[in-house]
Amino acid sequence: MAGMSNDGFRLRQWEESDAPVLLAAYAGAGMETERPAGVETLAGAERLIAGWADDAAADRAHTFAVVDGREILGQMRVMTEMRAHSIGWVSYWTLEKHRGRGVGSTGLKLLAKHCFDELGLFRLETGHRLNNPASCGVATSAGFLPEGIERQKLLYDGVRYDTETHARLATDPDPA
Predict the structure, then answer these.
(1) Rounded to whole angstroms, how far apart are CA atoms 161 and 55?
(2) Alpha helices, DSSP H only, in 19-166?
(3) Which of 30, 43, 122, 143 is most enclosed, with most CB atoms within 10 A?
(4) How many CB atoms are located within 10 Å of the residue 14 CB?
(5) What's the pTM value of the predicted model, to 2 decimals?
(6) Residue ranges of the N-acetyltransferase domain (predicted)?
(7) What is the pLDDT of residues 75-92, one digit of tens each?
(8) Contacts of 98 (CB under 8 A, 6+ apart)
(9) pLDDT by residue (tens digit) across 132-150?
(10) How many angstroms separate the CA atoms of 81 and 87, rounded?
């Protein structure tokens, strides 16, 4: 994974020393629905990173920092709970100050290549709220085709949101 890069961006495992960046990222604009429970302190961020390492060792999920040199720009994650069908569920985010630089789409292309080539997955799925066009742009730029709307799928602060599902297959052409 360390050698996989594109446009200067690469994916790497999260490290315990990254906890301050992770904690700050979850406090950023647009991240209120992304922060997992229990990640309000540095110790909580460290526990989350340790949990991600456990998830990877057990092949439940693989979570990577998107970096440019040593600087963390965002995150890519694939959950592999549907291994019997070779399906992974993908989620991603970019730190507020790095949005608009192609971090998400490049990171997602790198993650898809890793999932297909190294993890042996065939189908990757992702989704976004309809009121999040930036996330839609990341998915489509990384070769994920829209597959449909899921009505009122997500619940945040008492409000239900429709989502659009996207997928990419190992047999799909690589995006430009």
Answers:
(1) 28
(2) 19-26, 42-57, 103-117, 133-141
(3) 143
(4) 21
(5) 0.92
(6) 9-162
(7) 999 999 999 999 999 999
(8) 73, 74
(9) 999 999 999 999 999 999 9
(10) 8
